[in-house]
Task: inverse folding
């Protein structure tokens, strides 16, 4: 476990809050001030950080060819009856 010093702002803004605001939040939620900070940071992390792992990047030409080859057996066969386009 590590510690972090939090310096409070002199007035509330979108970039910080006063100690009185933190106390009011903690009292409203019936939790400690530390727990209120953890909850706020947790919500902020869920909002800002991606919910998935970064992938390996774009597919290679070889990957695409392999996918197309394996998909051929699953594609419909026969005469085209009707074709529509959204564009």
Result:
């Amino acid at each position: 476990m590590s510690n972090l010093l939090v310096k409070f702002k002199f007035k509330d803004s979108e970039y910080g809050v006063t100690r009185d605001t933190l106390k009011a939040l903690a009292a409203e939620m019936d939790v400690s001030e530390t727990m209120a900070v953890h909850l706020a940071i947790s919500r902020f992390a869920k909002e800002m950080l991606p919910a998935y792992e970064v992938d390996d990047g774009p597919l290679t030409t070889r990957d695409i060819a392999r996918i197309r080859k394996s998909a051929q057996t699953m594609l419909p066969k026969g005469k085209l009856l009707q074709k529509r386009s959204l564009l």
Observations:
- The first helix runs from residue 19 to 29.
- Residues 26-52 form one domain.
- Residues 80 and 86 are 17 Å apart (CA to CA).
